[in-house]
Amino acid sequence: MEPHAEVPLFEMDEEEDVLSMKSTAGCAHAARALAPPAGVDCDALVYMNFMKSHCCYDAMPTSSKLVIFDTTLQVKKAFFALVANGVRAAPLWDNKLKCFVGMLTITDFINILHRYYKSPLVQIYELEEHKIETWREIYLQYSINRLISITPDCSLFDAIYSLLKNKIHRLPVIDPASGNVLHILTHKRILKFLHIFRSKIPKPDFLQKRINEVSIGTFTQIATVQETASVFDALTIFVERRVSALPVVSERGKVVALYSRFDVINLAAQKNYNNLNMTMREAVSSRACCVEGVLKCYPHETLETIIDRIAKAEVHRLVLVDADDVVRGIVSLSDLLQALVLTPADIHQGSHGRD
Asked: Which of 55, 155, 191, 237 is deepest in the core (most CB within 10 A)?
């Protein structure tokens, strides 16, 4: 691996996995909770009102790691630095403009590999030599040309809306006075904040409904990959279907593993990104980190059970399977936040934009 001492980056302290609890009463600038309209069940608004009454600052940890890249850094070194620091994304600083201009994420790594990979015998020049600013000039022709961010005093409801509307997984919290990035807010962090405070808010009756009754999740056109397919095939699905993880299935459709976008970044750690012809079976078995079995859920389980499992395991999704372990759906953090928070506000998936 490249020597990390050469990588120009800034970082804060290691993350303490505790919530700051700075304002148990909620942020002064958070939106006011809504009273239920006539004929609307109060249960439906519980989580929406909770998110409206707390701000992004409330959900920030007391200490966290934040890696920042200058746009003149080589792409390859940047991805190695993500791996070395155990983070999945980093804000990008443009020294000429003197401001943050975007985020470098694992999705960029996937897009570079998918766009430029030819064969194991051909070096990916664009990954080896390009600077971040060069990649941005190429990629931004086909993508959004602005940094999507939020301020600390915005409500968590606004943060969820921004995450889901823009179909992003990381939302920088930027201090409007200094322009500094304070934290990177994620779906996982928001759900964890809700889970910690669950005993202080009313428990809605609908939590006792089975997942197949509430229809929260994806149950049709589920993106999967055969264990005999290549890693490049998986990258193609990531790019075309814009999903964050793929159940790896056997010929009989049984789920045998889960391959996420985060697993792709480990190709950089192992220097395997020039061999995307390897099978998914080989890629899964060669993962450097210890990976637990696929976290599953079943149609008969309640919504409360599923939320608890995702929150405690700190994962982004569960694979819904039947009694034979055949994939029947995916229940993700996005699905849960949409159903619990945005749908009660009459904001639906169909109105969401794309990156």
From this structure: 55
Q: Which residues pair with 174 in a beta bridge?
A: 181
Give the three-state DSSP class for 230. strand
Strand partners, 309: none
Q: What is the DSSP string of 321-341?
A: E-TT-BEEEEEEHHHHHIIII
Q: Is 38 helix (H, G, I), strand (E, B) or coil?
A: coil
**pLDDT score, position 16:** 43
- Which pair of structure tokens corresponds to residue 158? 């606004």
Q: What is the pLDDT, as a whole number, of residue 145?
A: 61
What ranges in the chain are assigned the alpha helix state H? 46-52, 56-59, 75-85, 106-116, 125-129, 132-139, 156-165, 187-196, 211-214, 231-241, 261-270, 280-285, 303-313, 333-337
18 pLDDT exceeds 80?
Answer: no
Q: Do 341 and 158 meet the contact criterion of CB atoms below 8 Å apart? A: no
Q: Cβ distance 170 to 92 under 8 Å?
A: no
Of the pLDDT bands very low, low, confident and very high (cuts 50, 70, 90), residue 351 is very low
Pick from 74, 69, 76: nearest CA to 11: 69
* Distance in angstroms (rounded) separating the CA atoms of residues 300 and 223: 22
pTM of the shown model: 0.84
Measured between alpha carbons, how far is 246 from 260 in angstroms, rounded to an integer?
6
- 3 is written with which tokens? 């020597």
Q: Which residues are bridge partners to 75 per DSSP?
A: none
Tokens of 124: 């990916």
**CA separation, residue 11 to residues 34, 181, 235 (Å):** 39, 11, 30
Q: What is residue 267's predicted lDDT score, i.e. its pLDDT? A: 80
Phi, psi of 181 (to 5 degrees): -80, 125
